[in-house]
Amino acid sequence: MSEEKETKAKKKSTSIDPAVLEMMEKAEAEGISTAFSRADETKPCPIGHEGSCCKHCHMGPCRLTGKTTVGICGATKETVVARNLARMTAAGAAAHSDHGRGMAMTLLAAAEGEAPDYQVKDEKKLRVVAHYLDVPEQGRSKEEVAVDVAKVALAEFGRQEGELLYVRRAPAKRQEIWRKLGIVPRGIDREIVETLHRTHVGNDQDAEHILDHAMRNALADGWGGSMLSTDISDIIFGTPGPVAASANFGTLREDEVNVVIHGHEPTLSELIVAAADDPEIVEYAKSKGAKGINLTGICCTANEILMRQGVPLLGNFLSQELAVLTGAVDAMVVDIQCIFQGLVEVAENYHTKIITTSAKAKITGAMHIEFHEDRAMEIAKQILCTAIDNYPNRGKVYIPDVQDRLVAGFSHEYISYMLGGSLRESFRPLNDAIMMGRIRGAAGVVGCNNPRTTHDDPHLYVVKELIKNDVLVVTTGCNAIACAKQGLLTPEVMDHCGAGLREICQTIGIPPVLHMGSCVDNTRILTVISQSATEGGLGEDISDLPVAGFAPEWMSEKAISIGMYFVASGVTTWMGGTSPVAGSEEVVRIISEGWKQKVGAAYYFEPDTEKAVKEALEHIDAKRKALKLEEYSPKKYAQSKTYLPGDYFAPEKHGAYSLK
Ligand code: MSK
Fold this sequence. Notes:
Elements: H1 3-12, H2 18-30, H3 35-41, H4 46-49, E1 53-54, E2 62-63, H5 77-111, H6 123-132, H7 142-158, H8 172-181, H9 188-198, H10 207-237, E3 243-247, E4 257-263, H11 266-276, H12 279-287, E5 293-298, H13 299-309, E6 313-315, H14 320-325, E7 331-334, H15 342-347, E8 353-356, E9 367-368, H16 376-390, E10 404-408, H17 412-420, H18 428-436, E11 441-445, H19 457-468, E12 471-475, H20 477-485, H21 499-508, E13 513-515, H22 522-535, E14 547-551, H23 557-568, E15 573-575, H24 585-599, E16 603-605, H25 609-626, H26 651-654
The structure holds Broken Fe4S4 cluster.
């Protein structure tokens, strides 16, 4: 192959998003380093990569490779690999749960009148959550209830004994499995601290025992910190319902002040959205020669403000540095999690201001405008004015003309409503469709991007294969953004769907891929599957359901925790890419076959995406068989294709990225 052809092929294999490819060419031409180029230059340490490096004390690090099979303390490979996985879980759970704690503190401040820019927007949800948390709500004002809900939520973090209150939201059979194994989470912080304690040198040195606690820790995230985060965000900002928007680099505007919001928490970003509508702020932007203010988002803050406010998505995790390269971003406002330090170096070549806002996350060289709830709107306006002041400093702008439409905002409340209307909200129609084989099963496809694989390719392969095989997909995080950019989040795009799934989606008027939110919102999926399991007809427990989990391009510790709480809740899950536990066959066995026996679900790390999808479909069919459901036949509902109006929009015919 000629050098030119080789370079072209290599570039193509870095992403399937045409906008990302365009921007990478620009980065290369200008000699600017990005995560893509750094991934090429930095090979992963092969020992740490498979979980075989122990650096938990200063006798080492002990690299268990070749003839070295134990560390200086005698720790075996199983112990070391298990400890590393458990610590990843603890860090991931800590990140999500601290986000949840922040939301509870905002609710408390709002209800006590100390954060006047926040109110209880969804009183109905507040009262439902009060019920879950044993907070009396009848005859009380929403502020009184909110104070108690926030206080009980905060107490869940510091709880020392008993069980997390939200555990009761799981099917009864699932709760019994957890109790029998002794892995019901007690307090959110307690389980995280205990993981760190157990994995300290000279402590828990039995791989299975360490990993049992890792499950308990992950459950404290899924059924604790993250679930509280989702619920309280809904209480303060409103429970999402379907909203139309657009995605990709084409959401940037040449003639407006572009503010890109990146990170995870909705607390500041919601206020920025509100401030951007303030006539005074808009006038100020006009006074600087811009037509207005344009907001667009990256990562999960983007998912949060998309779901509730319809703010467009610029891109997912690996698009962050490339956004700055457009020269069109006047400010990138970041809070917590998934923010590259490399942004500052890229921004040095352009006019973009990188603004950190969280007291927990500063970046050397970035501007820091610290966010405080009690002055929320004032700070949001200060940030927008900083971006506006920066607009006249723009140099040459290059925005790829790539954009697609989407529909997002499928909270579990909305899914229940859309299946039965306000009088008969229910999961019955979904269960019936699965029982009849119209829908073969369901899958949660979630998680990050990872430059070690072709950006967005495994995400889209998994999703397209699943819907082609009549599996309804729910999505969050960066997978949701990948689907949005490909037009998979619109009800009209049915070309990739199997006939049975297509018919159901078109009858209800939903896309075959339901955007359910941010990383913490994976708990919405837990709620859907719990309600589906208790609805009847599909067994009694989550592990009975014909469902599967995927994180095809995972990279973060949060993804490890999410994957683990799905498995511990009964959902067999396939993580893509290479395995962080490949160093120990015993650990691989414990979390797959071992956990199948213990919690009814396996945790797989499978680099072969095709194989993972094949296994998941077999798994779904095996679950159908165990439930004695009608055998799934792809041809049974094939006739539905002939008369469905959605067929007018076919990405292959019109170009998936052509809509503006
Ligand atoms: S943002 S954790 S890269 S999904 Fe939630 Fe995306 Fe993963 Fe961050």
